[in-house]
What does this fold into?
Amino acid sequence: MQSSTPAGRAGRPRSAAADTAILAATRAALVDLGWSKLTLGDVATRAGVAKTTLYRRWAGKNELVVDAVAELFDELELPDRGSLAADIEGVVLQFAAILARPEARSGLMAVVAESTRDDALRERIRTSIVERQKRLVLEGRARAQARGELPPEPDAAEAARTADLIFDMVAGSVVHRTLVSAEAANEEWVRGLTQVLLWGLTAQPTEPGDG
It folds into this structure.
């Protein structure tokens, strides 16, 4: 007898519209309820989907909230404003504007706090947020090198270390400024951060015994 299930059909395909609604509902619930009171049942109700729909996509609240926050940072785009300094200022101002949104603040602070006790959650933050947004550093550096603003980096391992350092400096500075110090990352502050970063990127390395 032939099976009544179509060959190769492992289950109902995921709906992009449902995913979007679920992630938006997660961010809204974070703002309204906070991390401790947020439940997948509440998110399902807000999104208008069955609770089983969430469990087919996410193992639990930790994974769901990370993806909800990651979707916000996926909005970041590196503008082409004609110079490395202007490009950096443009993307940093975008980043600061996202962090100023209540759903971004609530979600990011919650998952970072939880990750201190959960190695798997920390890894998901790294892969879903940090590694995905390093694309901005790589794109910006390649563009600046094409303009002749930065020298080429033929050593792939050293280039990767530099990209990590740039990302850490920018992301760490903006997160600390906006979420820890609760100060505005306005144009003046962003301009100063950019100047410090560019000084480090364009400074000539010193040889042992120099100076």
